[in-house]
Fold this protein.
Amino acid sequence: MEKIRAYFEKIIEMTDSDWEQFSSKLVRQEFPKNHVFLAAGQIENYLSFIEEGIVRFYIPKEENDLTFAFAFDNNFVSGYESFLTQKPSLYNVETLTRSTLWRLTYNDLQKVYRETENGNTIGRYASEELFLRKSKREISLLNDTAEQRYQNLFKEQPHLIKHIPLKYIASFIGVTPQALSRIRKRIS
């Protein structure tokens, strides 16, 4: 839980009172590897902070799922569109490794917004991080080659990427597993 406070204190000074109010609403949950904690059709009720683990976002398909995002340690994770609208999610969110999340419900977040001095700033910062990550991904898909997307992922999380199956990485960068194999041979 202290990782969350340290994360926020990089951008905002939190009073002990605000931290107590916020942290009292957090629930720590551990999930096993390959656990779907949000399935398409369910409503996302949590904004979560990854203390430890890797999370994958994907659209389930009959043959090959379409992986479109990953989240790593010390980042927020949520089926955010569903969380904001309180409508069913269009995709799944699953753990790729054993993961520990600190979770805040939608209703508790609304209370934090109303009842704390810095609640809205905390919420804004978390949502801005999620937006920037999504925007970066979209721009990368429009501007970068698959090889550049692979190299960027490897640069950003070199110690964690070895835990992600290659078929998910291939889907994420928009190529087949065979094409990823050729990319990896070229750059090694």
User: Anything to note?
Assistant: The beta strands are 27-31, 36-38, 46-52, 55-59, 66-71, 76-77, 92-95, 99-105.
